[in-house]
Design a protein that fits this description.
427 residues; homodimer; 11-stranded mixed beta sheet; 17 strands; Dihydrodipicolinate Reductase, domain 2
Chain lengths: 427, 427
């Protein structure tokens, strides 16, 4: 068996602790699969006193994470600090500058600086591995970049944020509103104290930007992802969606067409029988459609110490074996990004209107004027003179027309709140 | 870009034709992902006249498949002939003897001779790749051998044969019997003229043997797989299973315990809400449970020209990039195989009995004597003196006890047919 692979780990929070424990608990198995032992030589973290469940005796401790890159006992730098800037970026830059391969779980860093980092890593001839950055323990990066590499990828659809999926699942099951379930999720540790990264869709958008770059062979383009979160989802809409045969899910969706590439993260209605509709709770799932393989779906835990450590150590085993893949998979495309206004699909609209004659006629006249045709309409109960919900489902229409119609509908006197608009997706 | 990778393909049936078309249609993309062009230099097949949808001009044609191994233009041999013996085996032996890497979709060859072939390939220092041998286009070999390599695999459960899943799905949806649906499936091309390899579970057992070897890091042991097919499944049992909240699926199941490894392929009852219960038609799916990652499920098309070619070409891209993995993943275990008699689980029994007093008392007395306890019993309708079905569901019990009880129950005068016994699995 060859010389051990020396690892330096920066960041010993949930994931870092998980990696330490996994490398220790399954050391023999990992060495057999890697062809040599994988040994932690050095670490860097803020808190020296916290118990990580593993003895750190004999492991060097660097106060400055970037010093890991200079440590001669470190062959591979594992970056688990997080964040697109600051010490995480400084460490990855330092490692690449020293010609040391990097394993990271940092989706923000890759989504924002991935193109420049990949170029630097390729110039240096080193690997930049990031299986853990998307969908935790599900080996989706490897599936896209290697397992399905013979395919022209047509589309990707995924549940990429466990916190949002957990909140939406509980809202549906319990019929309760967003704020209540969020508070409960925070109490239980399923949502952060500042939950905006998750619930505003940013985290899912980082991951989708990475998947889209791999799928379509082009530079990662986070700023081109259209992002909407789940703060606006109400128990009312989840209920109506259920009546219509749908579930509401936060999906990441990327699609290649002749015109270019669309990438968007937003809540949407998915038919109850569709594969992604049935993925509940904290689970993640990704459906990849390739031109020859058809649809492949991968499902599993998208976060947590164990699943994320599983992905980090899989990358280390690849490095130990000398298995290398270009950062973005090798294919290069310059397809343009499409704006959300170009999206064509079906829409769910829910209005709160004054229950009086003529309101529906006014609303439908606006839709007609914008060329939007209706598939169905749902109006429940009567309360003359008071607010009642009206739900409309459209046939396929262009987002720009839909938005123009909504602006006019929202301005009608009888429409009492900002209309709720959700896209309907195949899932 | 480096020198092209020269490929020799033996067998130009459905899959071989699919590989030819894929290498041609996506040539540019494949070259980008592989780092160099992948070019077919030579082929071997019985029928020179058949149209494969791709021009074969300039490609050498060998009547003897084994001659591909000796062809100096061939860097990699792709074996798509099939069968555990004969020309497929001769070709793979010849390729290994010449030090040429092999890509194969041949599950029978690997299940039966995989240990010897792997040893020979490793002595020769060459790759033996077989992503296409299990679950078609789903990259499950790569997931097990690389993506989840940091995990101790606890169990595998899969729908590994599309023909059986298609037949069972249609039997359930249409309430029709096995023979009828099989005949229809043969007419439609979903089942072979001689369907026994599929419907008797052999094909699924070949695949399960391969997955178990990878999962548990031990020599492939096809002969240790307990195999039952779906010929005995009746519309009656599918109906009763549905009433009890289950679907009947042919699963491949492998599990590691302290005592050893169990591997079995048989029809079983899976709760309707379980992930594998919802995989219908010709789709395949595999649930892998790892000690740190938890449960990961992969789903997609398990057969057909496109999906299988996708997997074959992914292996070629790995070879072109120089990515290599030991044939069985690198870990080595000598855990023993457990006999089916040691299986412990819940069972569904369906008896056809004469409808007269005392029959149920006799049956339940036998079960009690073998220590088998009942969870529920279902008896529908009365027909004094005639045959009626009785369905029993047991609590957890040992297979050996169950079998002893069934032998005695089958011998009772009032029991008119061989009892139907199906295991209940978590799925």
């Amino acid at each position: 068996m060859s010389r051990p692979l020396g690892v330096g780990i920066a960041g010993l929070g949930t994931v870092g602790g998980g990696v330490l424990r996994l490398l220790s608990a399954n050391a023999e198995l990992i060495a057999a699969r890697a062809g040599r032992p994988i040994v932690v030589r050095a670490v860097s973290a803020r808190d020296r006193t916290r118990d990580r469940g593993v003895a750190l005796d004999g492991i060097a401790w660097h106060d400055d994470a970037a010093a890991l890159a200079a440590d001669p006992t470190v062959d591979v730098v594992v970056e688990l600090i997080g964040g697109a800037e600051g010490p995480a970026r400084a460490l990855v830059d330092a490692a690449i500058a020293r010609g040391k391969p990097v394993v990271t779980a940092n989706k923000a860093l890759l989504a924002v600086h991935g193109a420049a980092l990949a170029a630097a890593a390729e110039r240096a001839g080193i690997a930049l591995a990031f299986e853990a950055a998307v969908a935790g323990g599900i080996p989706v990066i490897k599936a896209l970049r290697e397992g399905l590499a013979a395919n022209r990828i047509l589309s990707i659809a995924g549940i990429l944020n466990g916190t949002c999926n957990y909140i939406l699942t509980r809202m549906r099951e319990e019929g309760r509103d967003f704020a209540e379930i969020l508070a409960d999720a925070q109490r239980l540790g399923y949502a952060e104290t500042d939950p905006s990264f998750d619930i505003d869709g940013i985290d899912a958008a980082h991951k989708l930007a990475i998947l889209a770059a791999l799928a379509f062979g082009r530079a990662v383009a986070f700023e081109a992802v259209h992002v909407e979160g789940i703060r606006g989802i109400s128990a009312l809409d989840i209920g109506f969606a259920g009546e219509l045969g749908y579930r509401i899910k936060l999906l990441g969706l990327a699609r290649a067409s002749e015109a270019g590439i669309s990438a968007r993260v937003h809540p949407c209605l998915v038919a109850q029988g569709a594969p992604l509709a049935r993925v509940d709770g904290v689970f993640n799932a990704v459906v990849i459609e390739g031109d020859v393989v058809g649809r492949v779906m991968l499902e599993g835990r998208g976060a947590g110490a164990g699943p994320t450590a599983s992905a980090v150590v899989a990358d280390l085993i690849d490095l130990a074996r000398g298995r290398a893949t270009p950062v973005w998979g090798g294919a290069v495309s310059d397809a343009p990004s499409l704006p959300i206004g170009d999206h064509v699909g079906c829409y769910y609209l829910r209005l709160m209107v004054t229950d009086r004659p003529g309101v529906i006629a006014d609303v439908t006249a606006v839709l007609r004027d914008q060329g939007v045709s209706l598939e169905s309409m749902l109006q429940r109960g009567r309360a003359p003179g008071e607010a009642v919900p009206v739900v409309l489902v459209t046939h396929e229409t262009r987002e720009s027309a839909m938005r123009a119609a909504l602006a006019r509908i929202g301005a009608l006197d009888a429409v009492l709140e900002k209309p709720a608009m959700l896209r309907i997706e195949a899932g």
